[in-house]
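[audit] Reproducing an earlier prediction to check determinism. Same input, same settings, fresh worker. If the tokens differ from the archived copy the diff job will pick it up downstream; this log only records the rerun itself.
[audit] input (289 residues):
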Amino acid sequence: MRFVIVTGMSGGGRATALRILEDAGYYCVDNLPIPLLTGLMELLDQPTSEYNKVALGLDIRTGLNFSDTMSMLDKLKAAGHNFEILFMNASDEVLVKRYKESRRNHPMTTQDDRLEDGIRKEREVLSGVLGKADYVIDTSNLLTRELKSELERIFVDNKDYNSLMVSILSFGFKNGIPQDADLIFDVRFLPNPFYIDELKTKTGLDTEVRDYVMGFPEATEFTEKIADLLDFLIPNYIKEGKYKLVIGIGCTEGKHRSVTLAQELYKRMQNKGNYGLTISHRDVTRAGK
């Protein structure tokens, strides 16, 4: 029997993860009162139990002090009950954006609190369970279909967990540097397709722009040097327990050169096998000023 406890930051994707697991054949229970957890696990461990895949959603609204919740989970594990902890996470910036879009109140804020204060308090409370999590998935730059693929890979296909999720992000410096970027690479040294009339309205996702940018030897050499650097860095990040790496590739507007090189880097890094990989283009559809 596989028992997964799905927890994490409010707005981090816990409910979405539960829906995905339910669609994948897991029997899902959300926010079961913690005192009932012992009885549930004993029931599921019975040889006659018809459930072999169960996911329990657990968040800050459990009604117990979360440290008490962790103590109970430790006792259950010591008693021989097996379970895994999946922690759903996201950056503060993304969590604020999601809450503002949904217009919901954060569970750890009062009428006088700022949203950022509630997120900070929740991170402090959940730091213990984060440290004990078997899997940490940061959804800051994940599409729902990418999250679905990752969860199915771990909990359905039983493949190795990619402890590090690498996100390649193209952007335009004129619109600001991404706040969650760990590494920034500036490709404004390359000739700008913006000044070519037939390329100005296209983007790095178009073949014509890609061929123009990559037609310069410096573009290929720079991409290869970044890939070589990441081949060195990523195993060391994994060894140190890092679970999210955001690589920013920037040009002036984030439409031509940065998009092209982000796509090329993505191709070189695909299917390496020891980390997850996503790509997004922050400013490619942003209207020019």
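[audit] rerun output stored. Observation attached for the diff report: The chain has a mean pLDDT of 90.
[audit] end
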